[in-house]
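Shapes recur. Our protein:

. . .
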Amino acid sequence: MLRFFRHIRKSLMEQNKVRTYFFYAIGEILLVVVGILIALQVNNWNEGRKALNQEQEILSALHNEFSENLQELTFDIGRLDTTYHNLIVLMDLMAMEELPSGVNVDSLIALTLETPTWNPSSYVLNDLKNSGSISRLSRANLQSKLFAWERHFENVKEIVGSFSNSSDAMISFLREESSLRNIDAYQKSIVIQPSRLGFDNRELLKDLRFENYVDDKLITVNQARDQYLKTVAVIEDLLNSIDKK
């Protein structure tokens, strides 16, 4: 092709057709410019396609991470519900003059000692944040929600931290003032036989200190549960934003 153009230029110069050569030169320049523009456009299209594919991979990874976190959170909310229910039962029993027959205080206390604390995966999100990729997402609405998620989760950790501290305080009290072995005999994760020392944990229901610990944990577990329910709504909103085309 280049040899062909050189041949035309040489022929025009030999024929002393300067005007024709001038227009030909302009046409050749335009042809080169058009070729460069087309090459740039093709390159931009390829780069745009690569960026789009990369963003789709990021969105897919984010969706999987938040979906798994939501599943685990929903499971932990169920565990919190169990803890809350049994704390209410203990509070009701402490308000009674006599215990109803068949009430197993050790089992009730064991069911209140669970402290489910949700620990979501953040590998994908942290990787995006550290690489600055969040700000390069094409969806401004999703960007703002991902940045807001970090602030929301800080609130979650603060409230759940209070719940964990309340649980630790209650266990510390029971360690000193009850038969933990009798309580642990009803834990599902380990097989322990009841104590033979004859301590009756039903006496705890008459102890003001125990009532205060139960009350404190009841308040904090309710706060944690409310915060978890808000978090479910936040994650579902994030997933909807990720799914939008």
Q: What stands out?
A: The CA atoms of residues 75 and 118 lie 9 Å apart.
